[in-house]
Design a protein that fits this description.
GO terms for molecular function: nucleotide binding. The protein has three helices and 17 strands. By secondary structure, the chain is of the alpha+beta class. β15 and β16 form a beta hairpin.
Length: 230
């Protein structure tokens, strides 16, 4: 059995646990642990960086077993682990919270866009290329001119800044179908497999350049960081 601890606590940096399973992927060994701190790439979010007993690993989802398994970077090889063996696991916490801040900011921007009457079309929460893309079911005349696009972007900025100032909580629950639903208070709810900050007040330096419109899509690029933790 594997516990996805990265869902329960975004900020859990290390844990003592046991090996749950071992195997091979593309000829290279992998190890899966019972208390898994490692978030694999998915849902528009990059994978965590982590360590198992000091060996640097990258987590990936193994489609055969459904487990999150850890493989090594480059040509380095994992040692031979045995099922049930005690191990220490750790993640790169600054990288984790940077990813979580970008993902949560993306949900918040989506909520602000929906408030403008737009519908989500695509998203990416990767550092340096984070963006939310929308379509406008009804024509939005503001988007036809540079001045109007800036006006629309400013409306998004105002909505985002207001929610952050209120420090609205970020929570999650599993629905009746077992899907994980992430809530930004009453602003927004969506199925999501990513990591998130604990409250919108944890977001800092959220920046939205003037949106762009291309091939019928409204593209809102953004950047965000986690506030400094004491």
């Amino acid at each position: 059995m594997q516990i996805p601890a990265y869902y329960a606590d975004t900020y859990e940096e290390q844990a003592h646990t046991r090996v749950a399973a071992i195997g091979e992927r593309d000829g290279a060994p992998w190890v899966a642990v019972e208390r898994c701190l490692f978030h694999p790439q998915g849902g528009g979010q990059p994978a965590d960086r982590g360590w198992v007993d000091g060996h640097e690993v990258v987590p990936v989802r193994d489609h055969d077993s459904g487990l999150v398994v850890a493989v090594t970077r480059g040509e380095a090889a994992l040692p031979v682990f045995s099922i049930g063996q005690p191990v220490e696991v750790r993640i790169d916490l600054p990288a984790r919270i940077a990813h979580a801040a970008l993902h949560t900011a993306g949900h918040l921007i989506e909520a602000a866009g929906r408030a403008q009457g737009w519908a989500l079309a695509a998203n990416s929460h990767f550092p340096g290329q984070a963006r939310i893309e929308f379509t406008a079911p009804q024509p939005d005349a503001r988007l036809d001119s540079p001045e109007g696009r800036e006006e629309a972007t400013e409306a998004l900025r105002t909505e985002v800044a207001g929610a952050i100032a209120q420090n609205l909580p970020v929570t999650w629950e599993n629905d009746a179908e077992g899907r994980r639903i992430v809530h930004l208070a009453g602003l927004h709810s969506a199925p999501c497999g990513g990591t998130h900050v604990s409250g919108l007040g944890d977001l800092a330096d959220v920046a939205l350049p003037t949106l762009k419109v291309k091939k019928g899509r409204i593209r809102v690029s953004y950047s965000a960081a986690h506030r400094e933790r004491s």
